[in-house]
Protein: 52 kDa repressor of the inhibitor of the protein kinase isoform X3
Organism: Phyllostomus discolor
Amino acid sequence: MPNFCAAPNCTRKSTQSDLAFFRFPRDPARCQKWVENCRRADLEDKTPDQLNKHYRLCAKHFETSMICRTSPYRTVLRDNAIPTIFDLTSHLNNPHSRHRKRIKELGTSDTLQEAHCSRSAILVTPQPIG
């Protein structure tokens, strides 16, 4: 069974590449940092054990200094590794995103302007990572 990356906008799975996948940590404080950095609200109510058992992040979301290759066949994370590399903007350029479809359905320039303003307000107030 392939592992899928739990990061938003990441479509990597273990059967497509030789990229390493890492389980969420069982340590509650460290696991919480992983969830916060992923910015996936649906993971916030899961326990560290549930996250560890069912969710993975691929190596693309970690700084190279956080990854140790112990052999050609084994890759591990440092004990303090926290994922910090995420593509949180790809939905803005996707012509099939729900937001773009909704704007197209609205049609009028006034409504389009309102929709653009509300989207801008959301984009200008991201939460800092870490």
